[in-house]
Amino acid sequence: MKNRMSEIDSNAAAGREERRAPLPPASFSLLVLSLRAQAEVQLGLYPVGDEKDSPEPDLEGARHAIDLLGILQEKTKGNLTLEEQRLLENSLTELRFRYVQAAEEHSKAKQS
């Protein structure tokens, strides 16, 4: 019985691997873009279904992702290519602006 389960698990894993899209190479840019996308989702910038069905923004989670990008900026200062530095700076600027907008909207919605 144990051998049969291992065979089934192996076949299932092989099937998943065949359908999986290849992962992009690991890079600093991919890390920044991943954290940026996480913050954007938490800010509610990617609506899910109808607007009324979209979840409330997770401002605390968004702030955390933005703070992580800020730490990356501090810790990598002087060690980035110009392209990487611009990507990180532009991402932080945009996310901080969007965070302020989302926080203000959330505050107005609570008052109404």
Description:
The chain is mostly helical and 112 residues long. It has one domain (26-111). The protein has 4 helices and no strands. Helix 2 packs antiparallel against helix 3 and helix 3 (59-76) packs antiparallel against helix 4 (82-111). The longest helix has 30 residues, at 82-111. The radius of gyration is 20 Å and the shape is flat.
Summary keywords:
mainly alpha
Task: Tell me the number of structural domains.
Answer: 1
Beta-strand percentage range: under 5%
| Number of distinct beta strands | 0
Largest sheet: none
Q: Which ranges are low-confidence, i.e. pLDDT below 50, for 5 or more consecutive residues?
A: none
H and E string: HHHH
Which percent bin holds the helix content?
over 70%
* Radius of gyration from CA coordinates: 20 Å
Structure, briefly:
The protein is mainly α and 112 residues long. It is built from four helices and no strands. The mean pLDDT is 87.
List the helices and strands and how they pair.
Elements: H1 2-19, H2 28-42, H3 59-76, H4 82-111
Helix pairs in contact: 2-3, 2-4, 3-4
